[in-house]
Batch of 4 targets.
Target 1
Amino acid sequence: MKKIVNPYVKVEGYNCFACSPYNENGLQMTFIEDGDYLVSNWTPKGFLAGYNHILHGGIQATLMDEIASWFVQVKMKTAGVTSNMNLRLKRTVHTNQGPLKLRAWLKEVRRNLVDVNVELVNPDGKVGAEGVVTYYTFPQEIAREKLNFPEPDDFFKKAT
């Protein structure tokens, strides 16, 4: 397993709701490469509940979209934009029962469309939500120019 370094922390104005460590109101996701998978171990905060300590469905969708985005960046070595999300909320996901695990892995590549399987796993090991996120990807040069995409190796360099 390899810890993924967030190269965007060096970009001025970077404050992503999902992955910026500087966004106090954000999700502050971090990532690990585990073979063919990208993984995020994430502990929900109580204020993200819809009601009764249940993680809001929109936050679940954001988590799955974000890990799919990082999968595209790290594993496909480019960046893109979300084109489609087909998610299924299978079981209740609580904000007060411990860390959750998100996993993403490749389903299919169709030209510049990348389908990424995603799942959100409860502390008991049961899948709380799953789906497929489709990303419209750009060639690296355009991803660098328009989306600040770094060199692919930057995801594995130690932060300075």
Target 2
Amino acid sequence: MKRFKKIIGVILSLALLITMIPAGTGIVKAATGKNIVAYFPNWGIYNSAHRTMTVGMIPWDKVTVINHAFFEVDSSFKLASTDSFADFDKMMDHSEGWDTNQLRGHFGEYKYYKNLYPNVKVIVSVGGWTRGQNFHAMAATTSTRAVFIQSVIDLLRKYPFIDGVDLDWEYPGINRAPDPNDSYDRGCPGGPEDKQNFTSLLREIRQAYNNNGLNGKLLTIAAPSGYDKLALQEPDIYAQYLDFINVMTYDMHGAWENTTNHQSPLYANPNDPCPTSPVDIKNRYNTDSAMKTLQQVYKIPAEKLLVGSPYYSRGWKGVTGGVNGMYANATGAATGTWDNPQSPGGQYPYFTLKTMENQNGFVKYRDDTYAKTPWLYNASQGIVLSYEDTTSLSARCDYINSNGYGGLIVWEISGDTSNFELTTLAFQKLIGSTTQTVATPVFSPAGGTYTNAQTVTITCATSGAEIRYTKDGTEPTASSALYSSALTVNTTTTLKAKAFKSGMNSSLTTTVVYTIGNTQTVATPVFSPAGGTYSSAQTVTITCATQGAEIRYTTDGTEPTATSALYSSPITVSSTTTIKAKAFMTGMTSSSTVTQTYTISSTQITAWTIGTAYKAGDLVTYSGKTYKCIQPHTALAGWTPDVVPALWGLVQ
């Protein structure tokens, strides 16, 4: 970083001195001084390859920063979501409601979980590989930058639980056309003027924070690991405006090369066959070289630099020669579960790679000397997959600690296992037990079936902790009912409890169910006719085999409760409608909910076709069945309605 000129007088006021300090005051760190930054993909909810991941599944107690991926710069140069439905409209576990002023989607979840984990920062990440199409034009002039910056300020004011922005411009100074085989890729125009314009953009965002009372908000970037790409930027100048820099020390090698390699090597391997000219890939495309370049060449403090870790693989096919498939010839990219089949990259999430190790012809190897990373080689299929595992991540964390770097970034969190073994390892290595966790509450007596009312006590082994509880099945928060004395449970009840204490991570939630008295369950309601697609209005009746039971129903998609509309006569359905019904009777367990969707269509339903742009609600036929579009998208090969339940729902 270029150093500030020395102040040569003592007559400058303290206020003036403060205005000369550009860096933000909102930097977040654990007590160890390390950050763990997890990128969260807003598209993960649609795809089992991303574990259909929601904000609530993030290991909030194992990270310090969550980067929400992605927003973009729109054609008017304003900040915009790449999926407004997922971010703001989709009804999720903690959505506030359907009113226009109530939060839903990922942002509603962020608001909820920020109340539970106020020390974890949530940042909106802008761009990414496929959505950098307007960075160059937006950054070109003071006026266009001002439009974008004002939209950033507006977002941070509207959603105060969002802690800043992360710019993932890939990459300033490089002109990249869209991938013709990837309909999601918008490309990323660029030119030499980006070098100074990028710096100006970061400086002006920081100034806008300060001028608008947002000094505590964070400003970060995702920086390239390639020294040749860094040369097209001004890291030594713009670093002063940033809280920290996320260095993408992955994707250093991939199937764009015709030789297999390690996608995220820690050190250079003298046996690496990569060229040294015109770009020295052999010696400088590795984690250590990237970090030392930023630290030593551009004079950026080590604690401001975060090392990247890939929770996915890069892979090749048609592999022949090499040593156990490494540094071998290849004919192209393998196709992984994270890939667009039309433009593959051999991308499998770690949780899948772990199940492939030494199975079905895949043999696991490792470079313990230089790269410190593993790979899988299937000789019969000619496939090599380079990735991160617990051993290589442990070495990466040791490298961070021994060199004084600021922490770790992970791309991306949905690639971890269901128990987050990679993230937990990183937390233990970089942060450890500095922040203790409150003990989990204990119920007495335990949940179960009882003939009489029960007096229930809740205890917590952590002295001074507050126990908060709920009786309606919702997740307890710091504002839920405070446990102060024993609870009397005289009807079937679900109790949830969570313990909180200042300066500690909140406990895990304990859930117990007490079933009191009659344990019989009301019969499930039956619809006639059944849901389906019809060409005219339908008269729907609902019956229940349990005599005397009340049937409650909804038509707005919400779960029926004992106060929902009472079914008393047939329901006329003249337009597409989803009806949910549940039966209740005093002294018995209420029935399960039955959902039936009636699609009333007077138009011809066409067959599903590749390349067609479908909108929510569209009906198609495929393999003799009728499907309804759930999410707007363009149909791609392999995305047939029967295999993509996130996009299509079976109607009939």
Target 3
Amino acid sequence: MATLVFDIETAALGREHFDEAQWDYLMREAERLPEEAARQQRVAELIRQLNLYPFTAQVVCIAMLNAETSRGQVQFLAADFEEGAGAADPRVEYVPCMDEAELLAAFWDVARHYEQVVTFNGRSFDVPFLYLRSALLNVPITRKDWLGYRFTTEPHCDLAEQLTFYGVSGRDGAARRFNLDFYCKAFGIDSPKSHGVTGMDVNQLLMEGRHR
């Protein structure tokens, strides 16, 4: 069975993408605070969180791995990528995309060839994000069955669900949820977070042009 492992990275849309009513709605929690310093702090926090939602952020990178061949592909937004740049591993192909619609179309073109997908928290984040961004940009979705019956591992195995036994313990029990970095270290696996960059850094890296 052809199995695709993937993870997405997202970045918040700029202020110019929202009208006044939308922006006021997004910042309404801060406006309720009585103190100016507290309001400013909360606004900064809310802005940092915008990359978590498909209506306030975009997909900027999708990393994929064929579990059978251990060959991968990284699709990312870049208007000026030089061929061969950053390709340290010959098993990984880097595919620059001019815009998000092109990136999503390229991803769905790859995804249609796989019967099985594996993610970490993909059921709660990656897949809904991809579905909604694709809908907003009118990009056809080739796999619409990744959010079906929750208590099955086919065609979508979400490791965050499996390692918590579908949340059987809640927040404090034996099967409580940990982050991916913690799980990787516990199982002796090289953590993707161990190189000093996390998803929360993407907004800043994108602004500085250091996301490639």
Target 4
Amino acid sequence: MTRFGILKHRSKQQENFLWTLAKFKENYPQDLPSEETTKALKSAQKLQGCGNFLLFKNFYTIDQTKLAKFHVCGQHLLCPFCAGIRASKSIQKYSERIDEVLKKNRKLKVALLTLTVKNGSDLGERANHLLTSFRTLIKR
């Protein structure tokens, strides 16, 4: 539960940043509201309600408390709370497979890595760039 509190706090900080970004742009009367301002306002409004409703169920027979229902904004690229929920779902999805591999080889360490590159006109070149970069990372 502490983790959710930290994520909610970071989400609130992101929301405040978006509100100030939108208000900063609106302070210039000669400027019409830009697309950036509109997007910032919409995102801030979505973030405002994110993580406000969390329903935990206490399973006293197995001494566990689990998150049963929650309200999120769904902006996992912008919202730390949604990113945390998404990451935990991803970990749960692969945990059985990871446990199986770790049983066979105890020396391995688990890491979740996401590689991103800008879009380009040549998909093959982008894929080769990712593979080359990954190999360089492994060699270090």
